[in-house]
Specification:
eight-stranded antiparallel sheet, 19 strands, 22% strand
Length: 466
């Protein structure tokens, strides 16, 4: 079925802590700052206080990041160009991201199609030759991160002065036709307001702590790309949480949605489960929490490297070249992606990643199998699962709350997929056939744009030898 810039002073401060900075006198001269042997804390008092404060904050943050990453760095030195000064600095491995994104603020803008994006920013997913050519071109690169598992480099660029962002994007695409280059789009959480979306049928039972796995079976390994997770919540006390942050801005990280989704994974698994939680959402000034393309792609790369069984993405937004390319690369590495189809209503346009062909798109129904009234519909809907009026972990109270949305349905299907792959030996390429065969048909007979192939409740029974 076809489914349709960071001020140079920050870099100097961070790199100095890591012992990787370019000569201090050279860098300060480019900033117009005095050459003070004592460093940032000895800057004269008449220096702009805001610059001093931000520099010290960046240095402190970089020290923390360096301490966390120093033991795991591999020693590979990669050049990085600061887009404001053009100075080439050196950083090691993951420290590139810490140096370049420590104090970046996400400023929103609107793309020509009306979608929300980061102002003045273009992101690119490139192979090594394309990356090297981009550096030689003099582009205003503000950060880059090596996507080891996906075999690419994620590069973030600021548009040239005097060039409109759409034009900058078009020119980059013309120069690198084989690269994935796009806006840094914003993606939303697919959970509806609790009170407004309660429906008949009652709440689900309280989240059960996972039970020990059966003898001879390893724990399920579920990747969750969402908001941060409150791992101390009682619903997650028996769950192993491995978390990592992929937010490239200074804004606050919410906890509510990711905690709710993680609790649903734990309940559906009802056994030993490891949740690899990729935190990608942040509080966007003037808007609801959002996740950037940049963060989503980096999270996918991490989860592939961690060898999870399946990846859940209870989020949605516009189609994006980078995200699409990362989805394909993830699928080619045998890692299924399950995503919510979105809560944009029956007439809403397809939302992504759920509408990508290689993604398992999930809609929500209540316990009477009635479709969630705000669920997206279309040929990209693959399956349905209960996601209306379900009880989920509440990070704000430490207790539970009621939630509805396609976000709440996707985790169950993700667990079914993980169990099917682990327990049956089914190859990821054959997964779709088994899920279709086990789905309970809803709505009109056969596939339809409301329920897809039908309701997923339990893993399919795979006959030995087949």
């Amino acid at each position: 079925m076809t489914k349709t810039r960071m001020h140079p002073v920050y870099i100097i401060a961070a790199a100095a802590v890591l012992g990787l900075a370019a000569p201090a006198d050279t860098a300060k001269a480019q900033l117009g700052l005095p050459q003070v042997p004592g460093g940032l804390r000895d800057l004269p008092i008449d220096i702009d206080r805001s610059v001093r404060t931000r520099a010290e904050r960046a240095a402190e943050k970089a020290a923390e990041d360096a301490e966390k990453t120093r033991e795991t760095l591999e020693g590979t030195i990669e050049p990085i160009v600061d887009g404001a000064s053009g100075v080439v600095h050196s950083a090691t491995g993951d420290a590139i991201a810490a140096i370049n994104s420590a104090t970046r603020s996400f400023v929103t803008a609107t793309a020509p199609d009306g979608s929300l994006i980061e102002a003045d920013i273009v992101v690119a997913l490139l192979d090594d030759d394309q990356r090297d050519a981009l550096h030689r071109s003099g582009a205003r690169i503000i950060s880059e991160r090596r996507m080891g598992a996906l075999g690419k480099t994620l590069v973030t660029l600021r548009r040239p002065d005097g060039v409109a962002l759409p034009q900058a994007l078009s020119e980059l695409r013309s120069s690198f036709p084989d690269g994935a280059i796009d806006y840094n789009h914003l993606y939303r959480l697919d959970q509806a307001s609790d009170a407004a979306e309660r429906q008949d049928g009652g709440a689900a039972s309280a989240t059960r702590p996972p039970e020990p796995g059966r003898d001879g079976q390893r724990s399920l390994r579920i990747g969750v790309i969402d908001s941060a997770v409150l791992s101390t919540h009682p619903a997650l006390q028996s769950v192993r949480i491995v978390d990592k942050d992929f937010v490239s801005s200074e804004h606050a990280r919410p906890l509510t949605h990711g905690t709710a989704v993680a609790s649903l994974v734990a309940r559906s698994a009802a056994e030993s489960v490891d949740i690899y939680a990729a935190s990608v959402f942040f509080q966007v000034p003037g808007h609801a929490p959002g996740a950037s393309t940049e963060g989503l792609v980096a999270a996918l790369d991490w989860l592939v490297a961690e060898d999870v069984d399946v990846i859940n993405m209870s989020l949605s937004g516009p189609s994006n070249e980078l995200l699409g390319a990362a989805v394909v690369a993830t699928s080619e590495r045998g890692k299924p992606i399950v995503a919510a189809v979105g809560n944009n209503g029956p007439a809403g346009e397809p939302l992504y990643p759920g509408a990508y062909e290689r993604v398992i798109g999930v809609t929500a129904v209540d316990r009477e199998h009635r479709i969630f009234r705000n669920a997206n519909r279309g040929e990209h809907v693959d399956y349905a699962a209960v996601g209306v009026n379900v009880k989920v972990a509440d990070s704000t109270t430490g207790s539970f709350t009621i939630a509805s949305g396609t976000s709440m349905a996707a985790p169950h299907v993700a667990v079914v997929v993980a169990k099917t792959l682990r327990d049956s030996g089914v190859h990821p390429d054959a997964l779709s056939s088994w899920l279709i065969a086990s789905a309970k048909d809803l709505g009109r007979k056969g596939f339809d744009p409301v329920y897809g192939h039908g309701l997923i409740t339990q893993p399919p029974v795979v006959v030995s030898g087949r």
